# Entry
Amino acid sequence: MKLNIDIKVPSSQEWIDAVMADFPSFLQDHADCERKASAMAMSFVAKYPNRKEILPELIEIGIEELEHFQQVYQLMEKHNIPLPESMGKDPYVSQLIKCCRHGREDRFLDRLIVASVAETRGAERFRLVSEAQSEPEMHRFYKILWASEAKHGHVFVKMALNYFDEKDVYDRLEYFMEEEGKIIQNLEIRAALH
# Structure
């Protein structure tokens, strides 16, 4: 059983060029994304406490994403890069969420799929960042994150399969991967994870 679908549209060279040209801004955005990812995992715990089969993994993901935030923050401190004054909305995630259906069960499935899609894109982009690094510490750091994000992409699909028919899960995953491709092509190019 396949737990995720490959992204439809690869990140552009223009995106990685923008990231490498303004890496401090990328680190600031990356820190925000890790905080948001931790909060997202814990929001599943808060909203769906009856989904006992997935609570331990959600809690683990919440902690792991918070540890990633701590690691990014330590890198930022080392390079005298401050945290942003405020966390802005992520246009990529906002557009994915607009594709979610309403109704408790449909929305639960779609939000798990959105988490999978975002983690899969994150893995692809962390790989690109790792490969573009000339500094060994940064190369290693983003290589480790790339593996972690890829694993999270699988985990959210596996969670969905606990509660929903396999065909429904894969149909929604396919739908979101198609929509994600359109979103990524139309996103403003900036030194940000998304």
The helical segments are 13-21, 23-47, 55-78, 91-98, 104-132, 136-161, 166-186. The chain has one domain: 13-82+106-186. The radius of gyration is 16 Å.
